């Protein structure tokens, strides 16, 4: 532990396109990591940049993606079936610390900035 810093704090980067399944399990893993004094920084590389490199490949931005699910807690009054809901994909994203990168060339700067912010956090708490 450094002077005035947090005892044991680890920084973990996850770099992904952000398309995740089983968000509840991921939320539990994030909580477990926090209890172990690990900070997860999720770097989401948005699909827009890949379509610039290959014009034939069209992939929606993560901000255009919708999440469709049945909510068992809400029932349709007429059919008594779970209610179908459509929400923005990023709503309820399981990682509290994330950054969306739409230009891959800016990835080194974003990683450096996240690392700088982590050092500030460790040295001020």
Counting copies of identical and different chains, the oligomeric state is single chain
Q: Could you say which structural class the secondary elements and strand pairing correspond to?
A: alpha/beta
Radius of gyration: 19 Å
What are the secondary-structure elements, in order, as H or E?
EHEHEEEH
DSSP E strands, number: 5
Would you give an account of this structure?
This protein is 30% helix and 29% strand. The longest helix is centred in the C-terminal third of the chain and has 18 residues, at 107-124. The protein has a three-stranded parallel β-sheet, with helices on both faces. A hairpin with a 6-residue loop joins β3 (66-75) and β4. Mean pLDDT is 82; it is low at 1-6. The chain has 125 residues and is of the alpha/beta class. It has helices at 23-35, 48-53, 107-124; strands at residues 10-16, 38-45, 66-75, 82-88, 98-101. It is built from three helices and five strands.
Short description:
It contains 3 helices and 5 strands. It is α/β, with parallel strands linked by helices. The N terminus is likely disordered.
